[in-house]
Amino acid sequence: MVQAAEKPIVWDLWPGDPPGNFVTLPPESDRTKEEDRLVAGKWVTRLQNVSAPTLTIYKPDPKTDTGASMIIAPGGGHTILAFDLEGTEVAEWATSIGLTAIVLKYRVPGKARNPDKNWLAAAQDGQRAMSLVKSRAKELEIDPDRIGIMGFSAGGTPVKYTAMISNRLYQPVDEHDSFSFRPAFAAPIYSSGMPIGEDLFESCPPVFMVIAHDDKDRSIELAELYIALKKADVSAEMHIYSEGGHGYGIRRTEQPVTSWTDRMEDWLKLNGFLDE
């Protein structure tokens, strides 16, 4: 039986080398420098050179465990991963509301593997993550029909390529890939753009989105995604805050945008994902 662990569970994402071009990179490291931007007065871990993608699994308190779960994909422009700001800190919030939280450490930099499609490795890793978690749901004591996915900024790529297209972007590698990569819900947070494919939104699950009006053109692109979802008759909720910029994660400040997790918790309750 899986218990609320003091130490999280870590799984390798792939049984061997991931699909695509093999690239020799320096060791994984945090490239944060003293002069880098702080978020809510705190440093951000900027993880670079990820070649061996993993899933890190955090279980909630058994007393509040809903059986639902969520894969979390940090952002970082497909160059680095903001691993604490948009990964482990989000997992702490997710477990506090009864979700099993699964942080996806996907491959970066994507451009090193595919200069023309720097998003492809993240998309493949997202699809693999969802299939793997579904196939091993019993082991984690989670409901395979209530596994969602959330991604921040570039981490929206794994979200969109699991929730909004139907074709797998790699050849199946083992029995885990016989399980669907379609999530039960999807949450691209201050992300941008739409996935590329002819089968967009087929069987797309409910979608929750957050953006700030002053987040460059991302607010326009996410609004366009909402309109496309609406036209496709996909259940969607979008919150546009007047200001907040980009990359705030879930760190609370005086800005209203940083309370967006309250809105998402309401949405999760409304859709039955927090029912025990």
Features of the shown structure:
single chain; alpha/beta; 276 residues; three-stranded antiparallel beta sheet; globular
Q: What string gives the helices and strands in order?
A: EEEEEEHEHHHEHEEHEH
Rg over alpha carbons: 17 Å
Number of discrete helical segments: 7
> Cα distance, first to last residue?
18 Å
Structural class assignment = alpha/beta
Tertiary shape: globular
Output the CATH topology. Rossmann fold
User: Mean pLDDT, as a whole number?
Assistant: 95
Tell me roughly what share of residues is in helical segments: 25-40%
**Total number of distinct structural domains:** 1
Architecture in CATH? 3-Layer(aba) Sandwich
Tell me the name of the CATH homologous superfamily: Alpha/Beta hydrolase fold, catalytic domain
| CATH class bucket | Alpha Beta
Query: What is the assembly state of the chains in this entry?
Result: single chain
Strand content of the residues, in percent? 15-25%
Largest sheet: 8 strands, mixed
